[in-house]
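Fill-in record for Transcobalamin-like C-terminal domain-containing protein.
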Amino acid sequence: MKKKIIAAASVLIIFVCVLCAVLFMGNKKETKEGTKKVSIEVVHGDGKAETFEYNTEAEFLGEILKENELVEGEEGEYGLFITSVDGEKADDTKEQWWCITKGGAQVNTSADKTSVQDGDKFEITLKEGY
């Protein structure tokens, strides 16, 4: 009886793991080749916003930002660490940093690893406080 319970639990765990893997792979956004229209809104420290529209063949946000010289930064272990956007530099003494969001939700990858799709709208906002 005990062996049957262990076997059933093992099968259930394997099933859940396979299901999670399938769901993860199905929801993973792949990069897409070809021309894409991408919008990037920059919100400065004073609250003023400016929108930049790009038609690009780039597959990742970092490529667009660098090609168009919209950002400056340092290459780090996790990709581009953005220090300046549209000429405004984040001030470390004020704990300022640039936050990338897409549709209001924070992006959890560096700009170099954030894939872009046609019609994507990103926001880069100067934030204060870690």
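KEY FINDING: The longest strand covers residues 36-43.
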